[in-house]
Amino acid sequence: MPIIQTQNLTKEYRMGAVTVTALAGVDFQVERGEFVAIMGPSGSGKSTLLHLLGGLDKPTEGEILLNGQPLASLGDDEITRLRRRKVGFIFQFYNLLPTLTAAENVALPLMIDGQNLNRRQDEILSLMKLVGLEERLQHKPDQLSGGQQQRVAVARAFVNQPEIVLADEPTGNLDSRSGTAILELLRRTCQELNATIVMVTHDPRAASFASRVVFLKDGEIVHQLCHDGQGISVQQITEVMASLEL
């Protein structure tokens, strides 16, 4: 069973008298352990798709299933708990709390969920080691570089052992070197934690780290590239984008 699946997923927005279709009947699925990149021009629906997958918005039509469970069957409180416990988020601008240390920021989802942090210290330390920040546990965000802050955000996304992690332009605010380090880290978490990641990006180089690249245009999936054992090259991605006029 796919970890997440959509069927005829449609999202429309009303702008005055005009109806704008952000997604138009998207059928999409992600297997456990996949690292999927979603690409497309501005307005193609890629961020809308990510928000729907994370339960941050509701579709106009269609269905989203997480581990076979329809999200539409859940009430608002249940959706909130699902986001807290089964979905991890990584954002472009880190979204760390400035008054908390790196370790406390990683632990924040556990605190919000009312869990006993004393029982989870080993897991928090293990994640900080995984992202290479075991020497920065007590540092506040303003004492960390942008790349280090995003590493904290990556650790935070995985602290609740989520079913799936959704990343929205996770390297968009980083220089090339820091961005590459974050992408390598995400790929490694897929391998070491059997994690599942869906990442929105406009950058072919970032997308080349994924095991599958999905291309959106005008709210529809128009093409996919899959890892063939040799990886997905930047050239392959740019050629597809050119042919589809993305």
Write structural notes for this entry.
The protein is globular. It has helices spanning 46-53, 76-86, 102-112, 121-130, 146-158, 176-193, 204-207, 234-243, and strands at 4-15, 18-30, 35-39, 61-66, 69-70, 87-90, 164-168, 197-200, 212-217, 220-226. It is built from 8 helices and 10 strands. It is 35% helix and 26% strand.
What is the fold's blueprint, element by element?
Elements: E1 4-15, E2 18-30, E3 35-39, H1 46-53, E4 61-66, E5 69-70, H2 76-86, E6 87-90, H3 102-112, H4 121-130, H5 146-158, E7 164-168, H6 176-193, E8 197-200, H7 204-207, E9 212-217, E10 220-226, H8 234-243
Parallel strand pairs: 3-8, 3-9, 6-7, 7-8
Antiparallel strand pairs: 1-2, 1-4, 4-5, 9-10
Helix pairs in contact: 3-5, 4-5, 5-6
SS-derived structural category: alpha/beta
How much of the residues is beta strand, in percent? 25-35%
Give the N-terminus to C-terminus distance in angstroms: 31 Å
CATH superfamily: P-loop containing nucleotide triphosphate hydrolases
Rg, alpha carbons: 18 Å
CATH structural architecture: 3-Layer(aba) Sandwich
